[in-house]
Amino acid sequence: MFHEFSTANIQIDKDFSAKLSGYGCISYIPETDIPNSSPAMANLSVETLERGLLTPKSNVWSFGIV
């Protein structure tokens, strides 16, 4: 799952298709280790904020917010 949706991580190609960038190191992060002060927190779904659930649906939510 992609955790850091922000305008800085979305690129547009010549056909105006959105591409995600800035993956960095993606791995499983225990809920207790997820930082709660990230600027991208404003883009997270309610389920992610309340229960730490990262799902394809929460990614769609975050992408829509951005």
Automatic annotation (TrEMBL):
Key words of the record: Kinase, Transferase
Molecular function GO labels: ATP binding; protein kinase activity
Domain of life: Eukaryota
Domain Protein kinase: 1-66
Keyword match Transferase: yes
Name used for this protein in its record: Probable serine/threonine-protein kinase PBL1
Source organism: Tanacetum cinerariifolium (Dalmatian daisy)
Taxonomic placement: Eukaryota, Viridiplantae, Streptophyta, Embryophyta, Tracheophyta
